[in-house]
Specification:
By secondary structure, the chain is an all-beta fold. The chain has one domain. It is 0% helix and 54% strand. The chain contains no helices and six strands. Strands 3, 4, 5 and 6 form a four-stranded antiparallel beta sheet that branches. Strands 1-2 form a two-stranded antiparallel ribbon. The chain starts with 5 loop residues before the first strand and ends with a strand. The relative contact order is 0.25.
């Protein structure tokens, strides 16, 4: 992150919003695999991905904002 962004979260009583600053550096770990099939010069591929957030995104010790994300890519690649 280039600049700290200001975010909002509900307090423990869920009565009001409180502000916080995001960290400038967040560490993630990404795992991916690629499965492809070649047709002459065109390749069809599928790439499932998994991301895990290793560090807290917030500059607060009270809240621990870490996430897991599943995603992927599907596409065609053409070789010149």
């Amino acid at each position: 992150m280039i600049n700290n962004s200001l975010g909002m979260y509900y307090n423990t009583n869920i009565q009001s919003l409180q502000g916080y600053e995001m960290r400038k550096t967040i560490f993630n770990l990404t795992t991916t695999a690629s499965i492809g099939y070649q047709f002459n010069k065109i390749e069809f591929f599928i790439e499932p991905k998994y991301w895990i957030n290793l560090s807290n995104a917030m500059n607060l010790n009270d809240l621990n904002h870490k996430y897991h994300l599943f995603g992927g890519n599907i596409g065609l690649a053409w070789r010149l």
